[in-house]
# Entry
Amino acid sequence: MVRTRVGYCGGALAEPTYRKVCNDEAFGDYAETIQLEFDGAELSYEDVLAAFFRSHDAERRGKARQYQSVIFVHDAFQRDVAMAALERYPAAHTKLEVATDFWDAEPYHQKWLLQRKRDIFMTLGMTDTAQLLEAPATTLNAYAAGKLRADVAAERLARHGVDDDVLDALFA
# Structure
């Protein structure tokens, strides 16, 4: 994974916020979602969808549009691959929709697990919330969630130019 960020997609009005999506009917067409950037040479779209279905209960119905299981596609290829994936999960309540504009969620929603492990976050010298949207934060969030081994996280961070002294402090 190159980068992830949480936000809102599927709605018509500009600039949704958590408060608006939760409380304002005019923003009730938005779903909370994750935007992924990935290197197709390292990870296929099929792999991304397999991880999507492994990581949540697609058979559970969201009580509101905000919490529905939705795959937002950007082109015909993604649509076709997603449709094939959905056929393998006949009990899924996942919807397939054309992606609308994606709006970043508020900083306190970004890399939620990483922000709760301030020692890791601060070891990287991250002081700007915009850094939560960058690749090193994505790697560290996966590590904080127990989804990446330390050696894999260290290797990815090194590729992103994280200093050896910082890596030693994180993984020693």
